Amino acid sequence: MAESVEADGVGTADGNTMELVVPSLAVNAELCRAAVAVFAAGLPFTLAELEQLKVAVSEAVGNCALHAYGGEPGRVRLLAQLAAGAIVIEIQDWGRGISDVALARQPAYTTSHDPDHIGLGFAFMEQFTDALEVESAPGEGTLVRMRKRPSGQAAGAAWSG
Amino acid sequence: MGPVPKRPCAPPAGWWGRGGARVDLSREFRDGAVVVRVSGDLDVQSADSFRRRVDGWMAEDCARLVLNLSKVTFLDSTGLGVLLGRIRKAEATGCRLAVVPPPGVARRLLDMAALGRAVPLFRSERSALDGEAQTHG
User: Fold this and answer.
1) How many domains does chain B have?
2) How far is B112 from B10, CA to CA, in rounded Å?
3) Which residues of A touch B22 (CB under 8 A)?
4) What is the ipTM of this complex?
5) What is the pLDDT of residues B38-59, one digit of tens each?
6) DSSP assignment, residue B101?
7) In this complex, which of B9, B51, B113 lies closest to A116 when CB atoms are compared?
């Protein structure tokens, strides 16, 4: 998956990639979002945009921890890439999968019986990134792909790709 | 989907499902109200411990509760869900609840869930205790 490990050249973050494989645990939502925030800082995102990315990543990894493996041990892979001035993030699990992705992406939809689970995870991923793709098949797992480009409003945004 | 990575990354036995608590809570009785101050990340990791402790405090004394979230550094949908759940619980038990919202993107999540329609929001703990000067909504 990570063929393009080499960055384009000294002093540019374009082409940089990151891969992280962690147990499917809620504690790793924090690890993953922190890693992505540092990684994404290679592009001229504003602090608010980095915070938005953190929410989106946290939702995806949180979904893995809460739903993917039904409480059993499992793995989550985070893949991030800076390419053509945008960040692409993939979060993948090999768990139960989602039978109806379109339904799962509806705001307020949840399979949980906990009344405090409000089913806004995908809505927040969608809200805080430019593009969201979800690939899933029952029994095979789920791949969430998100893309976000800096708005260009960061002060002192020197990087020009 | 590609194969499962074969890296050895299994944590120690008994570690699965153990949740940490990266959120700090404190309680103070002030001007006839219970003030709960929350700092840190209220997320998928800490939401359960937040819920347990706040529910315990609400069971003890819940005439008037000020939930001060001004030091919350991160919020996700799971954290937002337990906040909304505590608002429902306050309504159901006749507890007068006021919320001081967090800054930044966390505040935006509250607004996306229209939290201000369910509970009064205040710009500071002082104004929440005085019951005046709502931020908006």
Assistant:
1) 1
2) 37
3) 30
4) 0.84
5) 999 999 999 999 999 999 999 9
6) P
7) B51
